[in-house]
Amino acid sequence: MPTVTVLNKISQKHIVWGLIAAVLFFVLLYSYFVQMTIYYIVERKNIETDVGSRIALIGELESRYGSLQNKITKEFASTLGFVEPKKQLYTEQKRLVQN
Predict the structure, then answer these.
(1) HEC string of 34-48?
(2) How far apart are CA 17 and CA 11, in angstroms?
(3) How far apart are CA 84 and CA 63, in angstroms?
(4) How many Å apart are CA 92 and CA 18, to the nearest integer?
(5) Would you give the DSSP letter of residue 98?
(6) Percent of the chain, pLDDT > 70?
(7) Residue 44 C-beta-side C-alpha neighbours within 13 Å
(8) 48-76 pLDDT, tens per residue?
(9) What is the full DSSP assignment across 50-96?
(10) Domain chopping of the chain, boundaries
């Protein structure tokens, strides 16, 4: 009978240490997930800020484009060095199927 109590005590020690290890593992896993959640929240905030500044930049560039588009004329292009082509060539799209 003493061998059964020795095995029982050894089994209890293993169970207790196993439970302690499992609890420690889950605490570490929980803290990891909390840390990653906080990291991604901060990262999302940074991305939203970056997107907002880029949207403002795009609006500014579109405004400049609209104002410059109205200034382009043949005379303005010639002052920049553009010339009228002597002969204009156009391409045709070849079709694989005839109608």
Answers:
(1) HHHHHHHHHHHHHHH
(2) 10
(3) 28
(4) 78
(5) -
(6) 91
(7) 6
(8) 999 999 999 999 999 999 988 888 888 88
(9) HHHHHHHHHHHHHHHHHHHHTT--HHHHHHTT----SS-----PPPS
(10) 2-79
